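Dear all,

This email documents one entry for the complex benchmark we are building for the journal club exercise. For each entry we list the sequence lines for every component of the assembly. Then comes the predicted three-dimensional structure of the complex as a token string, followed by one or two observations. Please use this as the template for your own entries, and keep the labels exactly as they appear.
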Amino acid sequence: MDLNTLTITEAHAGLVKKEFSSTELTKACLQQIKKTEPKVHAFLLVAEKQALSQAREVDTKISRKEKIGELAGIPYSAKDLFCTKDIKTTAASRILENYIPPYESTTTKRLKDGDAVLIGKTNLDEFAHGASTEHSAFGPTHNPHDLTRVPGGSSGGSAASVASHECLFSLGTDTAGSIRQPANFCGVVGIKPTYGRTSRYGVIAMASSLDSIGHLTRSVEDAALVLKAIAGHDPHDSTTSSEPVPDYLKEIKKPIKNLKIGIPREYFGDGLNKDVREKIEAAIAKLKELGASITNVSLPLTKYAVPCYYIIQPAEVSSNLARYDGIKYGLSDSTAKDLLSVYLKSRARGFGAEAKRRIMLGTYTLSSGYYDAYYLKAQKVRTLIRQDFEKVLAKVDCLLTPISPTTAFKIGEKTDDPLKLYLEDIYTAPVNLFGGPGISVPCGQIDGLPVNFQLIGKHFGEPEILRAAYHYEQSTS
Amino acid sequence: MIDIKNISKLARLELTPAEEKKFSKELSSILDYFEQLKEIKTDNVEPTAQVTGLENITREDKIDKERTKNAHDGILENAPKRDDDHIEVKAVF
């Protein structure tokens, strides 16, 4: 049995029964990393020494018969957007190439307090700008199912690390699908919780009104387990909610009989690949067989979500990325003669093409004379899109849709035209505009490439989507 | 066509002539794509800035010692140029 292929629940049981130690489990993952990384390149940094020392601490606790938490001794990776104290955090950008955070993100801190073992930091599109992990300043990640294809993005390194058994779970971020779409391309479970359910503190910001902190796992039960550990109010992030955190593990095991699932017809239009559609329809049929009630619904504004999103997000990006000025931290151009050229040259050298594109797009749509026509208009459209979801979700418990129109595409296939890549977000971006939770659930393969479906819930409707996903997974595994 | 020179200056990004050409073309086509939002009537619609309905979250104006512990040195160590306990910058005036 390769320890690194276990789910969290299986590994926890093994640790408690002393079938193996956390050190052995961690070493198995490190070995897999050594074997896999030359091909996949999921990691930007492997924290071997720190990981082994954390694992030893857990082993000591076990040998002293102390009670350990459900994530104790479990090796995980974190997207390189999570600030980890004294461990380099780059956002896959030259501008932060040598940045060592003096503080820890709330989410990694909560995992640390629960004795989870951070094994490394994973690759992403620079500052999470992309859907393929090709926009990393440190080279692309390859899809473990087919090395000539992208793993999706922006949490592509996270998805690849979980799919290739280099760790047991991974932390990601999702602003328009950045957890759900790579989970789809790599065939793992990915959950984007409700906005404000998890803390953004210490996570390098992309678009603050849309960013959601979540994770990728190899089972739905594991997704529930990690969510339980990281969810909840954080005084350091004023947008987190005080809504109590349910026991997701109990919630998922409740029956799904009569759970109402809506199928929004706009998500099954011409753009959807025929084979992908068949897989999604088979999943719907399965859930129906399990006792869920299926209803057709409509979200008429769906096609406006991507243009709406691509106004709001770059606007927030341009503001969030203004802090990288070559003064306080990060890359600084030493040839600059005056203050203005420190800014101009440091940013020109530090940011990649997609980051520059978004900064300028946001600068333009927020600039005097254009604000009303673009930014304000998009914020109003966002209200209508939100109301669309609220209306439909008053009648059903959750929605089921595809995640992406196709399976994983080839590396280089969509790099020539930025708009092509933006359309990858068509089924996922609306959920971030609405703010509810979404989960990406494996439902088969086409020519060796994974396909997932998506469940979308009401605000704080994680129990319902996790439950439907769990029953589906149980019935098919 | 957008005024790429002005936008890149506002964005504090120095562009090469080749970049100016490329970005100006790309940004224009993205802006064209946004035009479809005009099809939606938004008179009397309130804009959405955040989705969970929280309002005016404040905290006491107190230093969180746990949070700032050791941060002082870590912050200074990340500065590209420092003079002892200060971050060095080019003259502002």
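Observations: Residues 372-393 of chain A form the longest helix (22 residues). Residues 1-477 of chain A form a domain with the Amidase signature (AS) enzymes fold (CATH 3.90.1300.10).
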